[in-house]
Specification:
The complex is a heterodimer of chains A (477) and B (537). With 477 residues, chain A is of the alpha+beta class. Chain A contains 18 helices and 15 strands. The two termini of chain A are 80 Å apart. Classes of the chains: A alpha+beta (477), B alpha+beta (537). Chain B: GO terms for molecular function: ATP binding; magnesium ion binding; phenylalanine-tRNA ligase activity; RNA binding.
């Protein structure tokens, strides 16, 4: 801008002008926006010692609508004066005239009229002087004629107080610099919640809305017994390898186990029973005592179901939990040693695979996932088992969103649950839906101390659902 | 999930038809398999070692199929084909038979020395078998898959397959001192003692993983024939003498191990799968195994078991309404030959030796559901009426989180596992005073202990976010793991306080000691508060 045409002209004119130039005058002369001149001035100033500029604020005065009227017709007090004939006028009548009420007190204080309160027909108004000067009208006409500066500051102030004049601020007709809507604003100070935990809050809500009670999971440390054996996972199962599970060095063993239950579990594993062939291997108590960092919250579900089984008579339940689990597996972009598992459990008489699918449909609908397909799968502790798939619009393929099944009788019956009680359960990780929702590809950018706090600052509200609606599934007959 | 790699065209040939990738993917989905990857040897080598090394490698299309971990009968092409053909009702499941030999039965005698190291053995013979390159490769692959899965990396069971015509029974399974065992192992040109072999295989990428199973034992397992020829030194390596070639006609299979049940299952799987290629299809010649106590067994067991399940039980568990006849048909499609018996409501199911995974009626229910088609089942909602409750600790946590954020703090989520340093040295505390829980055999220092305090996680988060504008105000509400209460971090003297609530000490707050700050690679002053929220429940 400093080398633009306006700056050019300005510099040339300035050379010739002794007392400097007025930007507003120059703009009018050149037929350009005042802002263009201001811009040129500022750019030239920025270059250093080329020009000097001094800011002057000018006030412009304008008549209000009322002021216009008075300039035409005369002030209210003048009109009052003119309405009083030589013989005077009843005050009540005067007050009824258009300018009466407004002009009366001013005409009185100007000593143009007086009131005779003792008149026969009520208070009567009389002229005091023969004629008067309508200064107000005169002054307004001056301003209207563009000669506001001929009035004293005090006079202008007074007229402004009477709302006959307004000071025209430069905002009314100055051009304004357009907003840069792509500039970042200044963020107000605030705290922030972690996106993974925002998602966790939503999942808790979903379960509570579906009538599920939260299980206690405040124990990262678990015994192999509750983590594996109680779930009918055999002791030689690969998941019980050092390579997949974090075993504890200290304290290495769980000392407190419910021994009569432990014996029933031992028998089921090694000899069978409860309608099962069992695994037919030598079950060892030492192995069951080994402490570990829980590999799934299903261990907490086992504890909860065991507690339930001991309460007679049996009452149906719906349980859930969302908490941290630990796996000693290979780490990569989507896997860490620690992650969060979401688990839901329903125990009732006569539950079927169809019920499991129905519950899953309602659950996933609350996540905005409506297209589901189910695939046969294998878990050591559920049979039948199902993997749950949903159609990913972006990837244009079916992706796994969860794992589920009916707990095996070999797990439930030794606990003491009644034989016709079925327990359906399902689980998924918390990290996966969070990464999809928040567009994060590497789990390290979401969890742990290496996370960029800016991501946490910037993460938006977690809204998991599409449109809320009535249940999609019929109740079973 | 185990993955089986099969040549696509071979698979289609055996199935008797071709499929598009999508069609086959769909078939797998229905059956409970997953078509994980479509690739070729060339592609695999290219990915692992670069394009140069891949030159000249095979272009033949391979299907990598994920198989459920409990389906040992689907771990090879033969088993997959058989399972799918029966599922699609194109063939009937074969009837596997154990037959007695025409001449003398092969004998494997176990001596008492094996008791302490590898007490069990089973054996069988595949008579008049015809190998092609593909069948041979598949035979080797199946052994490898079984080794990795049910055999728990050969620790529980190890398989040895031998050219019977190169040997002479009876066979002896014994255990000897390593220095007393000498033979020419597979792929080697001269004889070695067991000690030498242990050393040689230390650098063998494949075998080094199994050495530990017998390495430090006084006696090593070994199998001889009647002429002193070494068949194998399980679980490490077979002898070269009896190695199987494409010309092998009679195979002697031995499985040794520490789990008798699994050894039997493994043997059954191998012989059922490959007896397909015997002249007398699906027959397996018996072998006798004599234990140290004199007891003798005939293998393979190839047991067929009968189970009785009520039709309405299956219907009730799945949530369908099929007639008993239809259910029997569905199960038969899953290689569980069934028929309706008795009052018309009972189904008698014959469980073949290939389905060792069927141990309870619920396994049968699942197979019925799979054959019915999971996605054909009507979805219903349980009538279970429940009032939900929050776990009080979590409820309190949620309330506190929101107010902490409202107070201007940002929530962090840090790891529960960390190094000993993090919770001790860096905080100016001795590790034994922390009463921390220690992990055994951590792969890295980051997995040594479970955190006893949330502070190190937050300080590490700050250190990783050095470039962020100040102030940094973080919080975390989560579990810590302690054996019992322990000392807190070092604070600046005179600038710390213990926090009491309702007369009980709940934690500490203060300005962190400069040493602590430095050890976490921070430079600015930090103050912290750590309290236990459980007293507020």
């Amino acid at each position: 801008m400093a080398d633009g045409p306006v700056a050019d002209v300005l510099l040339r004119r300035l050379e010739a002008a002794d007392g400097g130039l007025d930007s507003a005058e120059l703009a009018a002369e050149l037929g350009v926006e005042h802002q263009a001149v201001v811009g040129a001035v500022k750019s030239l100033q920025a270059l250093g010692e080329i020009i000097e500029a001094e800011l002057r604020s000018t006030k412009r005065w304008e008549l209000t609508a009322e002021g216009e009227e008075i300039a035409r017709e005369g002030s209210h007090e003048a009109r009052v004066f003119r309405s009083v004939p030589p013989e005077g006028l009843a005050q009540s009548e005067l007050m009824r005239l258009p300018s009466g009420k407004v002009g009366f007190s001013k005409a009185m204080s100007n000593k143009w009229i007086r009131v005779d309160k003792s008149a026969a027909d009520g208070p009567r108004v009389f002229r005091v002087v023969d004629s008067m000067e309508d200064d107000v009208q005169r002054r307004l006409q001056l301003v209207r004629g563009g000669q506001a500066e001929k009035l004293a500051e005090k006079e202008r102030s007074e007229l402004r107080k009477r709302k006959l004049l307004t000071e025209v601020g430069s905002w009314r007709d100055r051009p304004f610099k357009p907003y840069n809507f792509s500039a970042r604003g200044v963020l107000p100070d605030s705290g922030h919640l972690h996106p993974l935990l925002k998602v966790r809050t939503q999942f808790r809500q979903i379960f509570l809305e579906m009538g599920f009670t939260e299980m206690p999971t405040d124990n990262f440390i678990e015994s192999s017994f509750w983590n594996f054996d109680a779930l009918f996972q055999p002791q030689q199962h690969p998941a019980r390898d050092q390579h997949d599970t974090f075993f504890l060095q200290d304290p290495a063993e769980a000392l407190q186990l419910p021994m009569d239950y432990v014996h029933r579990v031992k028998r089921t594993h090694s000899q069978g029973g409860y309608g099962s062939q069992g695994y037919k291997y030598t079950w060892k108590l030492d192995e069951a005592r080994k402490n570990l960092l829980r590999t799934h919250t299903t261990a907490a579900s086992a504890r909860a179901l065991y507690r339930l089984a001991r309460k007679k008579p049996f009452t149906p339940i719906k349980y859930f939990s969302i908490d941290r689990v630990f796996r000693n597996e290979t780490l990569d972009a989507t896997h860490l040693a620690e992650f969060h598992q979401i688990e839901g459990v329903v125990a009732d008489h006569g539950l079927t695979l169809g019920h499991l699918m129905g519950v899953l449909r309602e659950f996933f609908t609350k996540l905005g996932i409506t297209q589901l397909r189910f695939k046969p799968a294998y878990n050591p502790y559920t049979e039948p088992s199902m993997e749950v798939f949903s159609y990913h619009q972006g990837l244009k393929k079916w992706v796994e969103v969860g794992n589920s099944g009916l707990f095996r009788p070999e797990m439930l019956l030794p606990m003491g649950l009644p034989e016709n009680v079925s327990v359906i359960a399902w689980g998924l990780s918390l990290e996966r839906p969070t990464m999809i929702k928040y567009g994060i590809n590497n789990i390290r950018e979401l969890v742990g101390h290496k996370v960029n706090l800016q991501m946490v600052y910037d993460s938006p509200l977690c809204r998991l659902d599409a449109e809320p609606g009535p249940p999609q599934t019929q109740e079973a007959a | 999930m185990p993955t089986v790699s099969v040549k696509r065209d071979l698979l289609f040939k055996a199935l008797g038809r071709t499929y598009t990738d999508e069609e086959f993917d769909e078939l797998c989905f229905e059956f409970g398999l997953e078509l994980d990857e479509i690739t070729s040897e060339k592609e695999i080598i290219s990915k692992e070692q670069g394009d140069k090394k891949a030159e000249g490698a095979s272009d033949v299309v391979l299907y990598k199929i994920d198989v459920p971990a409990n389906r040992y009968d689907l771990l090879c092409l033969e088993g997959l084909v058989r399972g799918l053909q029966v599922f699609k009702e194109r063939i009937k499941a074969p009837l596997y038979k154990r037959v007695m030999p025409n001449g003398e039965i092969q004998k494997l005698i176990i001596t008492e020395e094996t008791a302490k190291i590898r007490p069990y053995a089973v054996a069988a013979v595949l008579r008049n078998i015809k190998f092609t390159k593909d069948r041979y490769d598949s035979f080797i692959e199946l052994q490898e898959k079984l080794h990795q899965n049910i055999c728990r990396k050969r620790a529980l069971v190890a398989i040895g397959a031998h050219d019977l015509d190169s040997l002479s029974g009876p066979f002896t399974f014994t255990a000897k001192r390593p220095s007393d065992i000498k033979f020419k192992p597979l792929s080697k040109t001269k004889e070695y003692t067991a000690c030498e072999l242990m050393n040689i295989y230390k650098t063998d990428n494949h075998l080094k993983h199994y050495l530990h199973i017998i390495e430090n034992k006084p006696l090593y397992p070994v199998i001889y024939d009647s002429n002193g020829v070494v068949l194998s030194m399980p679980p490490i390596i077979n002898g070269n003498h009896s190695k199987i070639t494409l010309n092998t006609r009679n195979v002697f299979i031995e499985c040794t191990g520490t789990d008798f049940t699994k050894a039997k299952i493994v043997l059954d799987i191998i012989v059922t799968m490959f007896s397909e290629y015997c002249e007398n299809q699906f027959t397996v010649e018996a072998a006798e195994v004599v234990f140290p106590n004199g007891k003798s067994y005939t293998f393979p067991e190839l047991a067929y078991r009968k189970e009785m399940v009520r039709a309405d039980l299956i219907n009730k568990k799945v949530g369908i309404r099929e007639t008993p006849e239809n259910l029997a048909k569905l199960l038969t499609r899953m290689c569980l030959k069934s028929e309706v018996i008795g009052d018309g409501n009972q189904i008698e199911i014959e469980i073949p030796p290939t389905r060792a995974d069927i141990i309870h009626a619920c396994d049968i229910v699942e197979d019925a559901a799979i054959a019915y088609g999971y996605n054909n089942i009507q979805m219903t909602l349980p009538k279970t009426y429940t009032i939900a409750n929050q776990f009080p600790l979590n409820k309190l946590t949620e309330l506190l989180r929101h107010d902490m954020a409202a107070a201007g703090f940002t929530e962090a989520l840090t790891f529960a596992l960390c190094s000993q340093e993090d919770i001790a040295d860096k905080l100016g505390v001795d590790i034994s005073a922390t009463k921390a829980v220690h992990i055994s055999n951590p792969k890295t220092a980051e997995f040594q202990v479970a955190r006893t305090t949330l502070l190190p996680g937050l300080l590490k988060t700050i250190a990783a976010n050095r470039k962020m504008p100040l102030p940094l105000k973080l919080f975390e509400i989560s579990d810590i793991v302690v054996k019992d209460s322990s000392r807190g971090p070092a604070f600046f003297p005179g600038r710390c306080a213990e926090v009491f609530a309702r007369g009980q000490s709940i934690g500490k707050l203060g300005v962190l000691h400069p040493d602590v700050i430095t050890k976490f690679e921070l430079t600015m002053p930090c103050s912290s508060l750590e309290i236990n929220i459980e007293p507020f429940l």
